[in-house]
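hey can u check if this looks right to u? its 246 residues, i copy pasted from the old doc so theres a chance i mangled smth
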Amino acid sequence: MHLNVRLHDRDLARHQRQCTHLEPRACSMTATDGNCCACADQRPRTQSGFYATYIDGRGWVEQATRWAGYCPNCQLAFNNFATVLRRFSMEKRIRQRTRRWLQSSEQANRVHIAQTHNHNHDSNHKTIPTSSTNRGRANLITSEKACDHWQARDCSMTNNPKYCCSCLDKRPNAPSYAQYVDGIGWVMGAVRWAYYCLGCRNHHELTDRQPHEPRRQTRPRGLQRMKGALRLHGSRLRPETLQIMT
């Protein structure tokens, strides 16, 4: 009699609810002593987060999730939790990257302000090194002395001191320069002042235009043949006649 009571109490305790996840997850396991699949899982945690699990139709899978062998309801609960966790991790990484970007931008702005402040107090001129190619806009040079062409050419450059585009252009001389053409890319064949302002460009187009050479006067072929024939036959003509013919 005493033994039967003990067996009955053990079976009753086995089917009682042991964890708080059994009802919310609607766990369908009946051999877990009242625990859900996760609470009944006694496998040690792995560092990689993957486990070897037997899946029907596939066999033993080495890199499976911990809940791959759980009941369908517990699998659904953990899949939803994993989705939320990945989304939270992604948002956290985005916030961290944004914070680092803002910090680097703020630091770059502070460095730029400090360099500008030091540059304004520096009286020596500073030349920006020219590139090995003639591509792009003119390189700039700042100095204390202004040029004499800025006002005469109506240059629209607003740098201080005033320099025209030609004086600011420190590219090496070349027969032609690179120019960007939409749909083609960088092509050679542009003039040096292609990127100058309108006033400087008009000035160079007027002054650098080569004057036309005078047209060479040629004698008509018929007159040359007639004169050669007269000389060949030894005809004596007066100088006035020869002057009129020539």
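The longest strand covers residues 59-64.
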